[in-house]
UniProtKB/TrEMBL annotation:
Swiss-Prot/TrEMBL keywords: ATP-binding, Nucleotide-binding
Species in which this protein is naturally found: Thermus scotoductus
Name of this chain's protein: ABC transporter ATP-binding protein
Annotated GO MF terms: ATP binding
Highest taxon above the source species: Bacteria
Presence of the UniProt keyword ATP-binding in the record: yes
């Protein structure tokens, strides 16, 4: 479903239809400086789909 995807400390992407974004902006808990259509990076999409990569245990 629609939702926010963090792309950078100062940038969020909204995944969903344009109409859902207009509704979500009304409930956004912060200041929105710019809204534009774009595509999130593949890295961000993979993190959203699969979660953060597991860290190796132990030394090297």
């Amino acid at each position: 479903g629609p939702g926010w995807l963090p792309e950078a400390p100062d940038r969020l992407f909204f995944l969903g239809p344009w109409e859902a974004l207009r509704e979500a902006l009304g409930a956004f808990p912060g200041e929105m400086l710019e809204v534009s259509r774009g595509t999130p990076s593949l890295e961000s999409l993979f993190l959203r789909l699969f979660g953060p990569a597991p860290r190796p245990r132990g030394g090297r």
